[in-house]
Amino acid sequence: MMKNGGLREYRSASWDEPVVMELGYPGRRGMVFGEVDAAIAAKVGAAEALLPAAMRRRRPPALPELSEPEVLRHYLHLSQQTLGMLGVNLFGTCTMKYNPRAGEAVMARPQVAETHPLQHADTLQGTLELVHGFDLILRELSGMDRFVFQAAGGADAAYTHACVTRAHLAARGELGKRDEIVTTIQTHPCNPATAATAGFKVVTLMLDERGYPSLDALKAALSDRTAALMVNNPDDMGIYNPEIKEWVRLVHEAGGLCFYDHANFNGVMGKLRARELGFDACMYMLHKTFGAPKGGGGPAVGAYGCTAELARYLPGPVVAFDGAKYRLDSDRPDSLGKVREFWGNVPQVLKAYAWARAMGAEGIHEASDLSVLANNYMEKKLLAIRGVTKSNPHIDAWRMEMTRYSLGVLKEDTGVGVADMQHRMVDFGVDAPWLSHEPWLVAEPFTPEAGEMWSKEDIDYWIAALARVSEEAYRDPEIVKTAPHNQSIAKIRTDGLEDPERWATTWRAYRRKHRKA
Amino acid sequence: MGRPRIGLIVNPVAGLGGRFALKGTDGAALERALERGALPVAPERARRAILRLVDSGGGFDLVAGAGSMGEESAEDTRAMAAEMANLGLALVLFAGGDGTARDVLDALGSRLPILGIPSGVKMHSAVFATSPEAAGEVAASFVHGRTRLADAEIMDIDEAALRAGRLSARLYGHARVPLLRRLVQGPKMGATPDGDGELAALCNLLAAEAEPGRLLILGPGTTLARIKARLGIEGTLAGIDVVRGRALAAKDADEARILALLDAEQANALPPRVIVGVVGGQGFLFGRGNQPLGPQVLRRLGRSQIVIAAAAEKILSLDPPYLRVDTGDPNTDRWLCGHLAVRTGPKRTLIVKVTA
Questions:
Q1: What is the Cα–Cα distance from B211 to B213, expressed in whole angstroms?
Q2: Contact between A487 and A427 (Cβ < 8 Å)
Q3: All domains of chain A, ordered by start, with CATH?
Q4: What does the CA dihedral A119, A122, A123, A124 come to, rounded to 10 degrees?
Q5: Using CA atoms, how far apart are residues A391 and A133, in angstroms rounded to an integer?
Q6: For the CA atoms of chain B, what is the radius of gyration?
Q7: Distance (Å, rounded) from C-alpha B47 to C-alpha B192?
Q8: Of residues B314, B114, B140, B91, the one with CA closest to residue A417
Q9: Residue of B189, B312, B322 lying closest to A438 (CA atoms)
Q10: Nearest to B351 among A217, A438, A441 (CB)
Q11: Cα dist. B12→A464, B67, B116, B284 in Å?
Q12: What does the alpha-carbon distance between residue B308 and residue B311 come to, in Å, rounded to a whole number?
């Protein structure tokens, strides 16, 4: 019998680490450069003369002055005080997948690490082949005709779609006339946000009692002003909208384009193709589904794919292949231009390519099954925990790879809500779970997601931690409300983050607002 | 600065009639409730709220009347609230229903923030927390400076009509209440410091879009009051005003006056239009507080000329998330049912189901 119900008593390192601006000593340097050689100085003149006068600082910047080992020590201390991904992390909607070391090893090879996108394409044939190969893989999975990887994440890919829609409308002489993008209240907020950024009005459908909007609501939203539909399916509540084909048909009939936000593809990968449902375009986030690292060690990648009809508007350059040789095609007069520099974060694309090839079609299929299975296993056990309910509890349809839960009952009974729960979970080495995108349609929401990667033991550990939090909430809620107890920094008051008088995102703002003389 | 002080008013008879389907505890209904052995509800619910308030940080003083805080009549509530008006309180918590809310508002006006511990039979007003515990939490959050204030409608239900089985209500007034965010958004998700900005911008836009040649009917409520203010007219808060462009055509108009104005517009190429808000908490679109916009007026305008303006948060906090209509004419109610667009910002619209 394991002690403590199998839960580890995690203890964070605590260095009582000051802010870097409070460290250092006047004049201390990490690296000291020698005087410029007289011959060079004579040739190029004074360094400051290279900058236009108006752009020169009058006073030196207020930077901390530290030696190199002091800087390193500071950041190592901070990393030790951070929990990130060292325990079990079922951070929902993001699908926290393991990033295979093999991918890192490939990226470290000089053929990748020492190349640059401005090299001539003739010297990048291998890289271009892999990028093209991954395009082909995604075409197979989606049914689309062409993918680009320039967008630096899912939101950027959604924005790409809003821009493609704009270009498409302009070409048809309908720009300005069709100015509404339709979405749903449970669709990821990056869709309405990027639609608005691209100049569209946003029409949002509410859910009905089945957990997705009705066709009547959609019909009420559609008109000759409809530019596009942007939706998830399933959304974060895990409910698949079985009427989606009819949605697409109605939107097309109204004259709009249909975009499938497939950022999280896990529940349906290998099972359905966006194109076969009638969609004109879709998007995948390589780190949510294809095993590439979060954030990407630089920008992430939102892979955007569309039909041949829309492909001419895609941002460029695009990779072209004539059967013998790869090249970068920048001569595309209808292109919307760029949504990001170059052709995307290539190491991310290559890691995703490696993942997809290692998995194979059967592996991708199986991973999808496992993610749905894991979620439904988790649902059974989570709903047995006192104070836990799920969104739309009256709907008995199977949830896909995610279910949104609620601690509304726990909160009502004990005063312990999801924020308290997050603070206590980290005491067991479990990263704070994801709650919910806004708006919160469910009281005290949280959304765990196992995907295919986490083991049954990991999932059981996570559930045991939540069960412990519930048990404590009913027995002695103060334990949970005053958590975390095992972290380097105890509970942080977050109300200042909403108050412009108090929030400070720079050292200068901090001094101005909190250290008034 | 001393400890914040919270006033507490408990209407011990509130809610007595609920279990007996008496639609309230006013007048004769109270006697009948007591005859049937009704037990006090409000004191227990107040206790639950206070327990949660204490649990949520403490650091406040509670000011209440002597004895069982016994108020037996509306006069008692008003007298106690009036007494509290001058005590420098941060907030007045009251346990009761709509009637208690009106009595508290009568005595305090909008001078002091108030918050209802839901204990009544009828709670159509938007000043009530979702549960006694939620009231305790919102109160704690407010006195510790973590919640802002917002306007909330207090409704006046026609008691006689209600007991006769017919819902009839008008807007009684507005109170300042701590923002009741049932769907609280965590600060980590980048909640805006001023969630009200979208609505303010929408009100500016709707006022700017008022065409000189179009008759525009403006409903009651705080959202519409903003539009009226932007139009620069001397409108009413609780009544219906009619403008043509920026000129006031009728103030606090009744149904007959509105119909007469519509008669004069029949040849106008720009059809008359109405802008209404939504009653928070209940989601009423027509039939609560805007009865002059009756079946005849609405039919003459047509569904396409109904503009609804409301904060997204107000719609999202409706449970279920439907708009409700009760125009007094079932056919008109059915005609309004379906889905309508609610404008929540200059470029944001929610499609919301309408039910009767």
A1: 5
A2: yes
A3: 130-356 (3.40.640.10)
A4: 80
A5: 40
A6: 21
A7: 34
A8: B140
A9: B189
A10: A217
A11: 44, 12, 14, 29
A12: 10
Q: Measure the CA–CA gap between A442 and B348, rounded to whole angstroms.
A: 22
At A495 the three-state DSSP class reads helix
Helix (H) or strand (E) holding A138: helix A125-142
Domain extents in chain B? 5-180, 197-355
Does A220 sit within 8 Å of B338, measured CB to CB? yes
Q: How far is B257 from chain A (nearest CA, A)?
A: 32
Q: Between chains, do A440 and B185 touch, taking CB under 8 Å as contact?
A: yes
- Judged by a CB distance cut-off of 8 A, whether residue A499 touches chain B is yes
- Which residue is associated with the tokens 């990991």? A458
Residues A221, B351: C-beta atoms closer than 8 Å: yes
CA gap A206, A212 in Å, rounded: 8
User: What's the token pair of residue A114?
Assistant: 């020492």
Distance separating alpha carbons of residues B82 and B76, to the nearest angstrom: 10
Token digits for B232? 């620069």
Distance in angstroms (rounded) separating the CA atoms of residues B277 and B344: 10
Question: Which string of DSSP letters, residue by residue, matches A106-171?
Answer: HHHSHHHHT--TTS-GGGGHHHHHHHHHHHHHHHHHH--SEEE--SSSHHHHHHHHHHHHHHHHHH
Q: Report the run of H or E that residue A481 belongs to, with start and end.
A: helix A477-481
Distance from CA of A123 to the nearest CA of B (A): 44
Low-confidence ranges of chain A (pLDDT < 70): 1-4, 296-298, 516-517
Residue numbers in B near A439 (CB within 8 A)? 183, 185, 312-313, 316
Degrees (nearest 5) of the Cα angle A239, A206, A379? 25
In degrees, rounded to 5, the angle at the alpha carbon of residue A24 between the alpha carbons of residues A23 and A26 is: 135
Residues in chain B predicted with pLDDT less than 70, given as ranges, are: 1, 15-39, 66-74, 121-122, 157-170, 180-195, 280-281
pLDDT in tens, A258-282: 999 999 999 999 999 999 999 999 9
Provide the 3-class DSSP secondary structure of residue A78: helix
Give the mutation candidate from B51, B184, B353, B354 for the A interface (greatest A CB count, under 10 A).
Answer: B353
CA A316, distance to chain mean position in Å, is 23
Facing residues of A260 across strands?
A: A231, A282
Interface check A415 vs B, CB under 8 A: yes
**Architecture, CATH, for domain B5-180:** 3-Layer(aba) Sandwich (3.40)
Query: What DSSP character marks residue B337?
Result: -
CA-closest candidate to residue A10, choices A96, A82, A113? A82
- Rounded to an integer, what distance in angstroms lies between the CA atom of residue B171 and that of residue B290? 8
Question: Is B98 within 8 Å of B123 (Cβ atoms)?
Answer: yes
Per-residue tokens: A69: 């080992």
Which tokens sit at B159? Answer: 């008691």
**Nearest chain B residue (CA) to A214:** B353
ipTM: 0.88
Q: Please state, in angstroms and rounded to a whole number, the distance separating the CA atoms of residues B87 and B91.
A: 11
What pLDDT, in 10s, does the model give residues A193-231?
999 999 999 999 999 888 899 999 999 999 999 999 999
- The pLDDT tens digits of the residues spanning A96-134 come to 888 889 888 988 999 999 999 999 999 999 999 999 999
Give residue B184's identity as a one-letter amino acid code: V
Evaluate the CA torsion angle B118, B124, B126, B130 in order and state its sign: positive
Query: Would the CB atoms of A495 and B146 count as touching at under 8 Å?
Result: yes
Which DSSP letter does residue A328 get?
E
Element (DSSP H or E) covering residue A12: none
**Residue B5 burial class via C-beta count within 10 angstroms: exposed 0-12, middle 13-18, buried 19 and up:** middle
Residue A125 gets which letter from DSSP? H
